[in-house]
Amino acid sequence: MLDLLRQVLGPWYLQIKFVHVLSVAVWIASTVVAYTYYVVPVFKAWRRNPQDPEIITLRNWVMERFDQGIIFEHVAFPLIILTGPMMYIAGGWSTATNWLLLKIILVCLVAIPIEMFDYHISHFRGNKQRLRRAGDAAGYDRAVQRHWMFFLITSPPIMVFSVLIVFLAITKPF
Fold it and tell me: Would you say 30 and 84 are in contact if contact means Cβ atoms under 8 Å apart?
């Protein structure tokens, strides 16, 4: 079965790799500008003035737009998860290759769990726009607070490990 898949996917390896690399770029870069230049400054202002209605309105606007903009990242990530194994099969890779094994471990233990929770708080039960439309003010505020806490906890590891994953893929150091 694996040989059949390798024969079918083999001629398409470079195209699969293109989709994979492009998706990784979108996944990494799609939220950097919004997070750095919109979310963080607004949340810092809100933390300094938590009762200011204008800042709360701006905070809510930013978070709802962030939930919409994150769709690019959330389309790219499944493509990464799909094309990675396809390249593994088509390229005849092996987990005996230490750099690849470390990359797979990082994706499975860091990226996938973080992304799963991110999908939940951006699109499902934590979707701010949906909570606002339902009139759930308390739930809305909890969702915003939860999303901000998620950013604080996950941003440092994602910044480090996403760069490490790309480094491993390009340099194949060991």
Answer: no
82 shares a domain with 4: yes
β strands within the chain, DSSP E: none
10 Å Cβ neighbour count for 46? 19
Over the stretch 28-40, which tens digit does the pLDDT of each residue have?
A: 998 888 889 899 9
pLDDT at 154: 94
- Say yes or no: 101 and 142 in one domain: yes
- Which one-letter amino acid corresponds to residue 12? W
Domain count, the chain: 2
Q: Directed axis angle between helix 137-171 and helix 98-106, to 10°? A: 180
Q: Can you give the pLDDT at residue 34?
A: 86
Give φ, ψ of 139 to 5 degrees. -65, -40
The verdict on 89 and 166 lying in the same domain is no
The length of the chain in residues reads: 174
